[in-house]
Amino acid sequence: HWDFGGSTVIASDFIRLTPDSQSHRGAVWCKIPVRMRHWEVQMHFRVHGSSGNLFGDGIAFWYIDPAVSKFNGPVFGMQDKFRGLGVLLDTYSNHNGPHSHDHPYISAMVNNGSLAYDHDRDGTHSQLDGCTARFRNRDHDTLLSIRYVNNALLVATDIENKQIWQPCFRVPNVKLPTHFVFGVSAMTGDLSDNHDLLSVKVYEIEPKEPLEDNIGVDYRTIEPSADSAEPPRPHVDSQADSGWSFLRIFLLVLFCAIGLVTLLVLGLVYHTRQQRKKKRFY
Questions:
Q1: Contact at 8 Å (CB) between 266 and 272?
Q2: What residues does the L-type lectin-like domain cover (predicted)?
Q3: Distance (Å, rounded) from C-alpha 146 to C-alpha 17?
Q4: Helix (H) or strand (E) holding 4
């Protein structure tokens, strides 16, 4: 019932979507459409790597239209301008323009196929909401819960090894159709991490108080939408590609320092030789 692609490797007890090396994309997705109106997905995952400060890019959960959205693209392994819901676990801060959160960062985006994800702004111009979550390089289980009940999206984490769900955010008035599919993808760029998927559990939820205005609605024809989103802010063009700005600056400074030291050494050697030549004439 599941398929996979890209750099994904299937092991006996986990699925590695990307290895800890540059420029990889991997994904797994369910081939059976979701007919449930209200559901919860619990994702057991692991993000880890050898780098202490520079790592990326992240892993994402998807509920998307398989007819127009493909698991191969620049948005954490998903094509851009997807149609459906994405819950994005972003480990690298591109930080083009101001925002007030740290990374790793979990956010949600609902798209009808018209919005482009902006990596330079970490998707903040199109996110519904988000929270900081320190899920990388943990030595215990890290889990994510995505609940969609009565047109409300609820995201929670269990990353402190306490077996307790901690709310991340809740977004009301989110419209999602049925007959989309679940999937998980990950991506590395110039920075990297291992992105592992250990399990995906799906539950049908029975709402205590179903919404009356949904009675008689054909849920397959609903257009993905959400009433709330972050206010837009100006985009500032960056000369550095996503995931490279800090690294390029660091390398540039390093090479400049090496070049300066080399010039100083060469200058000192030249000066010493000139002094020796002058002494020969006395």
A1: no
A2: 1-205
A3: 20
A4: strand 2-6
Provide the domain limits for residue 277: 244-282
**238 vs 143, more confident:** 143
| Residue 231 forms part of a structural domain | no
Same-domain check for residues 275 and 187: no
- Whether 216 and 261 map to the same domain: the answer is no
Find the angle CA(75)-CA(79)-CA(83) to the nearest 5 degrees.
Answer: 105
pLDDT for residue 177 is more than 70: yes
Is the bond into 104 cis (omega within 30 degrees of 0)? yes
84-137 per-position pLDDT tens digit: 999 999 988 766 455 556 788 999 999 999 988 876 565 667 789 999 999 999
Please tell me whether residues 220 and 248 are part of one structural domain.
Answer: no
Tell me the pTM.
0.78
Token pair recorded at residue 69: 């959205």
Please tell me whether residues 213 and 265 are part of one structural domain.
no
